[in-house]
Specification:
Elements lengths: L5 E4 L5 H15 L9 H14 L1 E7 L2 E13 L2 E11 L8 H13 L2 E6 L3 H9 L3 E8 L4 E8 L5
Length: 157
């Protein structure tokens, strides 16, 4: 990327680019989920998640390189922002796009929570670096995989 990424709301015209980023990033992050990044999962992404979440994109050099989906969540009775999805194009991973999207979410909501698959060790390391800690774990019934609930408190100040 020659241009610094900027965060902006995801527009209907971004749907194909956002789904492409999600699909490519998900296949790398979740190789243990059958048909990840395609088929029924792609239909759900287009028809549910891109429609009902507060979606933001990171754009650089005129291309969507990251997608952030936010919903309102709750942790221990406290309302917070829940990151329903954070996806960075494989070619943009490690460039600060993910951190930029997390900080944008924190600017909007303060405290944050999210779920991440236990097997997604790369994402777990990233979330630890940006201040998330494990709160709880459960089994994702759809895929019989362990999901970790991570939390990040509101930054001081």
């Amino acid at each position: 990327m020659s241009e610094a990424p900027r965060i902006r709301p995801c527009l209907p015209a971004d749907a194909d680019a956002a789904v492409d980023v999600w699909s490519r990033a998900s296949r790398i992050a979740h190789p243990f989920i059958p048909d990840e990044g395609a088929g029924e999962r792609e239909r759900e992404m287009r028809e549910t998640y891109l429609v009902h979440a507060d979606n933001w994109v990171a754009e650089a050099d005129g291309r969507v390189v990251g997608l952030l989906g936010l919903i309102l969540g709750e942790i221990d009775g406290v309302v917070c922002g829940e990151i329903g999805g954070l996806f960075v194009a494989p070619e943009a991973q490690g460039t600060g796009v993910g951190r930029l999207l997390v900080e944008h979410a924190a600017t909007l909501h303060g405290a944050l929570t999210l779920d991440v698959y236990e097997k997604n060790s790369r994402a777990r390391r990233f979330y630890a670096r940006v201040g998330f800690t494990e709160h709880s774990r459960r089994t994702d019934a759809a895929h019989d995989e362990i999901l970790l609930k991570l939390v990040r408190p509101t930054p001081p100040g």
